[in-house]
């Protein structure tokens, strides 16, 4: 997760905030990544499909 995000930052610049789902497999590592870059990491509401709608729409799911 961190490598593709780093590539996006290199191409588009550092965002102020990134919203992700609550995937526990990478949340803590990604939070550390965001802290190092000064990015606010916001997670969606657990078990809430409507809370993830923006993310899923952006990914074309």
TrEMBL record:
Membrane listed as a keyword: no
Top-level taxon of the source organism: Eukaryota
Name used for this protein in its record: POK18 protein
Source organism: Tachuris rubrigastra
GO molecular-function term, one example from the UniProt record: hydrolase activity
Keyword Transmembrane assigned: no
Span of domain Integrase catalytic: 1-61
Residue ranges of the TM segments: none
UniProt keyword annotations, A-Z: Endonuclease, Hydrolase, Nuclease, Nucleotidyltransferase, RNA-directed DNA polymerase, Transferase
Gene: Ervk18_2
InterPro entries the UniProt entry points to: Integrase_cat-core, RNaseH-like_sf, RNaseH_sf
